[in-house]
Amino acid sequence: MTGRARSGASHLRRVGRALVATGAATLAIVALAYADAIFGRDAAIAAFERAEAADAARVDVDFEPEPDQSLWSAGAKTKYAQALRYDRVPAALLTIPRLEIKVPVFLGTDPITLNRGAGVVDGTARPGESGNVAISGHRDSFFRPLEHIAVGDVITLRTLDREQRYAVTDIRIVDPLDVDVLEPTEASVLTLITCYPFHYVGYAPDRFVVRARLTT
Predict the structure, then answer these.
(1) Which residues span the domain enclosing 58?
(2) Beta partners for residue 212, in sequence order
(3) ∠ CA 181-183-188 to the nearest 5 degrees?
């Protein structure tokens, strides 16, 4: 084997080892993100159910008020949010029995929130309020089963104060810039939003929207 050939073979081996290492690191990151999502979801559901049980038993539960973060650095805010991500009681639990969906619903749609549950879109009604409650979730995790949802399916939104049931009335695919689905409504409706297509590789170009109307 000539020197050039040996050099070429050595280069290929280095490239191969680099690719294997990159692939292993990528799989590890994916596995950690998945574990964080499942653990975060289960911890949030457990926190909600504990708070619900305490409320039913009329037991006072002490929650420390949010500290003033106006002078905090961005890094400090991020670390604080990460430290609390398994401790906060979600605003509601969303369930769709037929699809076996049970997911905690938090206020806001930041990355940490959407990794452990679904989030109420800023500017829309909160769970338990009248109007349009818009909730967003990832298509590749907790909202994946929505690809099988159908008109008439029952969706339950449970807060610490009440349980509300909605029936699916409309399913549509819209452009990401179409924000009409977030507009306030006189009727009490629930709007679920996720990316579409469900199995698209990369940044999905559209949004899958489920609209449901309050029944009880």
Answers:
(1) 3-67+79-214
(2) 168, 190
(3) 90
